[in-house]
Here is the input.
Amino acid sequence: MQIQMFAAFFIACDDGIGRVDRSTLPLQTLMELFIFGLKEPEKICGSREDPDDVCEWKGVRCNADGEVEVFEWNDKDEDGTGTVAFEFLPYTIKTVWMFMNALSGTIQLADLPGKMEGVYLSVNQLTGSLDLDTLPTAVRALGLSNNKFTGEVSLENLPKCLEYLSLSENQLSGTICLTSLPPALEDLVLDNNNFQGSLDFTRLPKSICQITLHENRFSGTVDLGNLPESMTFVNFRNNALNGTVRVPHGLRAILEGNDDLTVERIEE
Here is the structure.
């Protein structure tokens, strides 16, 4: 079968030296290679031996030109095992929904197609590190919460159009920089990790609405006096913040669990 030949070729070229440009392979072939890493791909494509046309697959949406733009494979729980090989996603795809499964292994964000706008892989068992500097420039939303990612992450070179970033409930560590976030960012969700260090809220994007950093190890003082007008909610519960923080009127701020922090709420 042709698909088996392509699969064998890619395995043989796993070091990347002989990696074929995805634009040289048919969309059908690429999507077959992608889903064959998942449990029971025949439930997606109809038959492993003779797959249906990709635009007829369950969870696939194509545009008027027959190009794959969306792939959805969610809520399989423990039956949703498999691995995620972004290098097999066709260059036309814009959104991947694969949350609440049991996906394992590592992911390479650098392999995402250039048109990718949304990646939702929360609540899986994915491991390894995350190189956010390699995200395609078109990405607007990245949801990777509730996995087992480790290591440090950089927030300084994210796509300028990124609006949503969720990395909560992993095992990420190190310090984070909040002074070079994308101008379009609205939601930053980093709670329940092992982040540490101080927090600088003086140069947040004007679009930001909420930041959740609870259940980490952040320390030092915090200044909430110059937050963007768009900010409505912050959660810094259970860290090691200290000093005195003045909470502006209208801001919902959860700050409990910082034993050395004094909170003053400004009334109108």
User: Anything to note?
Assistant: The first strand starts at residue 60 and ends at 62. The mean pLDDT is 93. The chain has one domain: 2-265.
